Amino acid sequence: MVDTTSAPAGPTLLLITSFFPFESGEEFIEGEIGRLAAEFSEVLIAPLSYRSGMTQTRDLPANVGVLRIPPGHRSGSDAADAIRFAVRHPWRALRSLSRAVADGGLRPSRTWANLQFDLLSSLLASELAQLLPEGFLRSQDAVIYSYWMHTQARTAVELRGLIRRPKIPLVTRGHGGDIYTEAHRSGFLPQRARIAAAMARIYPVSRNGADYLRRRFPSARNRISPRRLGVAAAHNPGNPQQAAQLVITCSWVRPLKRLDLFVDALALAQQSFPQARWVHFGGGPAEAMAALHDLATEQLAPGSFEFAGALTNSELRARYGAQPATVFVNVSETEGVPVSIMEALAQGLPVIATDVGGSAELIDADAGMFDGLLPARPSARIVADRLETLLSSPPERFADYVSASLTHWQSEWSSETNYTAFARELASLPRGSADTGITTNAPAAAPRPDVAAPALPHCSVVIPCYNGEQTLPRQLDALLRQDPKVVREIIVADNMSTDGTKDVVASYAARDPRVKYHHSDRGQGPVFAQNDGVRASTQPFVMLCGADDEVQPGWAEGFAAEFRAGAKIVGCTIVRTAENGETLEEISQLSDASWPGYLTLGGGQAGFARHVFDELDGLDESFAGAAEDVDFFWRAQLAGYGISFAPDARFNYYSRPTGSEVLAQRRGWGRSRAQLYAKYRSLGMPRRSRFLAIPMIPWCLLRLALAGTNEHRRTQALAGLGTNIGVLEGSLKYRCWYL
Fold it and tell me: What is the pLDDT of residue 724?
């Protein structure tokens, strides 16, 4: 029974692992589990590879329980288990077969691998569903977290469907072998796309892994973001000694670790540094260990090497603290983000490592660390040269390398920092609609742990502008009346204007240095000006507004209040206004009418944290006509950001003064709506209708004829006509049926 008497109020977490907390492996979870327990009311661990007789080797917090698959339900063979499941559940096996054929294509080996993988995941999900407590089965207030993007993640997908809780968000980490297909002889990992499509978040442990997955699964790219692992502070940190000439390696002994290459390199280095010694930590198959020992005996100076064997993590850290070393070396041919290097950095050791997987993220020569990054496939001579360079460096330079390694660990790879932020992020995940975890009309986004709102948010205002000579002064006057402690700069991004826009901006810049001119000439359209303007901004928060609109008093303060409360994206009130100042309509709420569950937010009414813009790579410039803002904020919601609303932030949106301008604007909107549908239909955006535009065009023409001289009715008819013509044009252009 899990003790929840002192647990925090909040959701329940189901953590799906391989073995943890049994046997060895998955050591990173040791540092993470306490942080998870502090943020969730209850944590349930499901080790899918558990077998009867395994020993629990890790202590757990009081509110953490373990779900053990009963003895006898698993054999020693995954293939045998899959076949047994198929015999017991033929209909589910047929569904697995259909998925396997769809994913495997015409390659029988891949179809079989997919089938076995699908059946095994279905079996594990069935067994796990029987072990879940009744409270978990009744609640939607939970998160399912897979530690690996493999069987564990596929089981999570199957389990959620089995217990019929589609609103529970699924998240998965990704490490090395569960990300990179090249790490496998077959060059294949089963059901990647199915896993990626179902996850609300995919958290590779390195930037390299995130970039790799984004290339493989572009439709999921906005749900993929790296979240680093970490290690605890070392025993006796900062103790490395250059004079010791002691080289450390730490790994399981197998071919891809290329320890034979290291032995060749050390043999070369010993020609210049005969006192250089080597200690290897880690075990391996007896035959492989014997072969490595024989090679070292043949190549290295007598008595200059030691095989310390497999140690527990605490034993290894104690040994590092007690025996000062000089350098840590890893020449593996493939990696995720190696914990062994993190442990070395925490000790202060300079590192020499091949540029594979996420290893490059662990070595930052620009920050003063020793430049030990090797090519992915180095020769023994190249490795030896790096060793010799370090061993011959001036003592004061070596001391700087030690200090830089410690600093890099503290800032990037500390378990306390990384796991606390990660646990809080998981606990704050929106638990809303199926798969995406998006909450409809959420009042505010949960604060992201990586960027905190300042006490008084400093904001940049970006105005995309084309030929704004006549209307821009009205907007600039209004902005300069806002609180200057909030509005720190006003950037006018001039999109190749042909009138006096530049002179207008220059005259205002002469009066107030916060007004800045930025020339945007990469392409014609507001999306280019918005991207260029935001990228030129210098403040942590950005607010967009139109050159032909006018913000009202208190507009900036309204946004600032939401940012101060932790919001990352904020919308405001639109006051549709005639050129004579008459209020036509006030829009004081956001809508999800175009795509239920996803709020539509226009750029002219929006503000956001700059890091959100950077995380999403800015606005999609394929939306050169319109809807680039709608697309951006939908992508933000798919990435897990909520949208807050600032009712006291108001601006006047001036209606187009002529019928031709209204018609042109709405045609652009209609085309862009079809473009949005072409992009998001696979994620569930509904079709507008099958034939609505076709009868609406003549209906709007009739309304226009009947409107006579009534300007308001004429404008409404032209707006409807333009929208439906644009939808028809866009459906043809983007090859979709959004009529």
Answer: 67
Q: What CATH number did the domain enclosing 556 receive?
A: 3.90.550.10
The rounded radius of gyration (Å) of the Cα atoms in the chain is: 30
Mean pLDDT of the chain: 85
Helix axes 380-391, 259-269, angle to 10 degrees: 50
CB neighbour class for 664 (10 Å; exposed up to 12, middle 13-18, buried from 19): middle
Q: What is the DSSP letter of 53?
A: T
- pLDDT for the residue numbered 315: 92
Whether residues 666 and 645 share a domain: the answer is: no
Residue 219 lies in a domain: yes
Give the domain extent around 312: 242-413
pLDDT digits (tens, 9 = 90+) for 492-533: 999 999 999 999 999 999 999 999 999 999 888 889 999 999
**Do residue 152 and residue 125 come from a single domain?**
yes
Nearest residue to 165 via CA among 219, 122, 129, 114:
129
* Residue 493 near residue 530, CB atoms below 8 Å: yes
Per-residue burial over 123-139, b if 16 or more Cβ lie within 10 Å, else e, is: bbbbbbeeebeeebeee
Does residue 212 sit in the same domain as residue 85?
yes
Provide the CATH number for the domain around residue 332: 3.40.50.2000
Give phi and psi for 108, each to the nearest 5.
-55, -35
What percent of the chain is predicted at pLDDT more than 90? 52
Tens-place pLDDT, residues 393-415: 999 999 999 999 999 999 899 99
Biggest CA–CA distance in the chain, Å, is 103
CA angle 417, 423, 424 (to 5 degrees): 90
Whole-angstrom Cα distance, residue 448 to residue 21? 29
Q: Is a pLDDT exceeding 90 seen at residue 452?
A: no
Strands, sheet with 142-146, edge to edge from the N-terminal-most edge strand: 64-66, 42-47, 12-17, 142-146, 170-174, 201-204
pLDDT digits (tens, 9 = 90+) for 561-616: 989 888 899 999 999 888 777 888 888 778 777 777 778 888 778 999 999 999 88
Which of 624, 640, 655 finishes a domain? 655
Total number of domains constituting the chain = 4
Q: Which of 607, 571, 563, 603 has its CA nearest to residue 587? A: 571
Across the range 356-365, mean pLDDT stands at 89
Among 10-14, 135-139, 499-503, which stretch is predicted with the lowest mean pLDDT?
A: 135-139
Claim to verify: residue 519 and residue 668 sit in the same structural domain: no
151 with 271, same domain? no
Tell me: do 97 and 208 sit in the same domain.
yes
Give the relative orientation of helices 259-269 and 286-299 as an angle to the nearest 10 degrees: 20
In total, the chain counts a number of residues equal to: 739
For residues 681 and 582, state if they share a domain: no
